[in-house]
Design a protein that fits this description.
The chain has 203 residues and is an alpha+beta fold. Helix 2 runs parallel beside helix 3. The protein is 25% helix and 28% strand.
Length: 203
Amino acid sequence: MRKGIEKIDIQSLDLKDQVVGINRVTKVVKGGKNMSFAALVVVGDGAGHVGYGMGKAREVPSAIKKGIEAAKKNVIRVSVTKEGSTIPHTVTGHFGSGSVLLKPASEGTGVIAGGAVRAVISAVGIHNVLTKSLGSSTAHNVVKATIDALQQLKDPQTVARLRGRDVSEFIAAPKAKAKGKVDASAAVTGTVAPAASAAPEAV
């Protein structure tokens, strides 16, 4: 986690947990081998808050419980669009040898992501986004790289306030429909709408 992240009051949030992965860990000691489990957990409320944590214990349920408690201590707020459907801009997150690219997507695209990235994106509540894992495929590195990318997101209002400019300069205006294009149905059937009938010639 980066320094300077605002503190989130998790008491008012309806956090739901999701287990990303469970690894079995063996520690060799003088008397033999000690078996334990490490669980990587992601929590989020589906409304712009997400956190991750890892727990270790001799049993799987205890490891998951510890992971949930650790994740709740690392909850951050993510800047998404007003509709909550996608992210405001393209961003790349890094952690160790892992890199994750996030790109905004139009309505109806869905979440194009793998297992670890999808778990984080779903916990945030983003519904349309394009992602690509560019480095290590280890779940820990991918999750932390995704969190790093989400921390870099900035909404247009914040950027405009910091630069002392108008918000409209950072929001792309909707493209106007081009004039003079043939109707779609006509293009398919190969027909063109008849022009207005000309005036009858004088005899």
